[in-house]
Design goal:
This protein has 283 residues and is of the alpha+beta class. It folds into 2 domains: 12-190, 2-Layer Sandwich (Alpha-Beta Plaits), CATH 3.30.70.1290; 228-283. Helix content is 46%, strand content 11%. A 5-stranded mixed β-sheet has the order 2-3-1-4-5. It is elongated and about 70 Å long. The two termini are 32 Å apart.
C-alpha cells in the first residue's frame, strides 16, 4: 500500500497526528493525558526536539514538532510505543492503541508554522467540543497565551518571538492571532504530495531528496513526482495540434512524470489502447 515518504533533515518542522485504532479513545481520563505529556517530555529531551504546540483530543492528538537533528521517525516510535505500553498496563489491555502509522506533514517554518500552531489549538473549537480555545485544558494554548504554566514538554519562546520581543505584548498578540483564525478556512488544501506544506520555493528545495526515492514503489506518485507539471501544462494547445509533438508528450507524461495511461487518454481524448501502443513504441 502506498504511503508518504518521511522527509527528514536537521531543523525540519512537522505537524504530527496519530489516531486511535478503530477510532477509539487514546485517553480515557486526565491521568492518561498527563502520562502522554510526560512521555512527550522524555522524548523531546532524549531526541532534542522542540514541541511548539500540542492538542490532546479524545481519540487522537496533534503536535507541532521541530527536529534539530532530523530524527522524527525514531522519536515517534518511542513516543507512541512507550505511551501504548503505559496505557495498556494501566487499563489491563493488549494490542495496538494507535491506528497504523502516524501522519506527519513537513512544514515550511518561516511561512506556515504560525498558521499550524493556530490550527492545532483550535481543534477542539472546530470539533464543537468547546466555544473557545481557552476552554480546552489539554492544549498548548494557555501556556502560549500567558494564561498558564507551560508543560515541560512545550517550548513557547519561538512562537511568542514571532509576535513581539516583549513577552506580555507577544502573549496578547498570540491571543488575537488565534481568535482571528476561528473564521479562517482550513490550510490543508495547500498540502503538496500528501506531505509538504510550503511555497513552491520550499517544495523545489526538496526535489533532490524526493528524486532519490522515485523508484520506491510504496511511495505514492503524488509525492514521488511532486514537482511534475500538470497535464494541462504538458498538453498545451500547440502540442495537441501537432500529432508528432503530441505523441512524444504522451510518452513523456507516462514515462517521465508517472501519469497513468488512463489519465492521459481521458485528458487528450484518445482511446486507452492507442496510448498504450504509443508508450510501448508501437504507435
Amino acid at each position: 500500500m502506498a504511503r508518504p515518504l518521511r522527509i527528514e533533515y536537521p531543523g525540519a518542522v512537522y505537524h504530527v497526528t496519530s489516531r486511535g485504532n478503530e477510532k477509539k479513545a487514546v485517553y480515557k481520563d486526565d491521568h492518561d493525558r498527563e502520562t502522554f505529556l510526560t512521555t512527550l517530555q522524555h522524548v523531546t529531551k532524549r531526541y532534542n526536539w522542540f514541541c511548539h504546540a500540542y492538542c490532546l483530543m479524545d481519540n487522537h492528538y496533534h503536535l507541532l514538532i521541530e527536529t534539530p537533528e532530523g530524527n522524527l521517525s525514531i522519536g515517534m516510535r518511542q513516543l507512541n510505543g512507550v505511551y501504548t505500553q503505559l496505557f495498556n498496563r494501566r487499563h489491563k489491555r493488549t494490542g495496538h492503541l494507535f491506528q497504523g502509522r502516524y501522519k506527519a506533514i513537513l512544514i515550511q517554518k518561516d511561512t506556515h508554522v504560525l498558521e499550524v500552531c493556530r490550527y492545532v489549538v483550535l481543534n477542539p473549537v472546530r470539533a464543537g467540543m468547546v466555544e473557545r480555545p481557552y476552554d480546552w485544558q489539554w492544549s498548548s494554548y494557555h501556556a502560549t497565551a500567558g494564561q498558564g504554566k507551560a508543560h515541560p514538554s512545550l517550548t513557547v519562546d519561538w512562537v511568542l518571538g514571532q509576535m513581539s520581543s516583549k513577552r506580555r505584548v507577544a502573549e496578547k498578540e498570540y491571543r488575537q492571532f488565534v481568535q482571528e483564525g476561528m473564521e479562517k478556512k482550513s490550510l490543508w488544501s495547500e498540502v503538496k504530495g500528501q506531505a509538504i506544506l510550503g511555497d513552491n520555493t520550499f517544495v523545489d528545495s526538496l526535489i533532490e531528496y524526493l528524486a532519490r526515492h522515485k523508484d520506491v514503489a510504496e511511495i505514492p506518485k503524488t509525492q514521488r513526482y511532486i514537482n511534475r507539471p500538470t497535464l494541462d501544462q504538458i498538453f498545451q494547445e500547440d502540442i495537441l495540434r501537432d500529432k508528432r509533438k503530441r505523441d512524444k508528450k504522451i510518452v513523456e507524461a507516462v514515462d517521465t512524470y508517472g501519469y497513468r495511461q488512463s489519465e492521459v487518454a481521458r485528458h487528450v481524448g484518445m482511446h486507452y489502447s492507442t496510448i498504450s501502443n504509443l508508450v510501448r513504441g508501437k504507435g
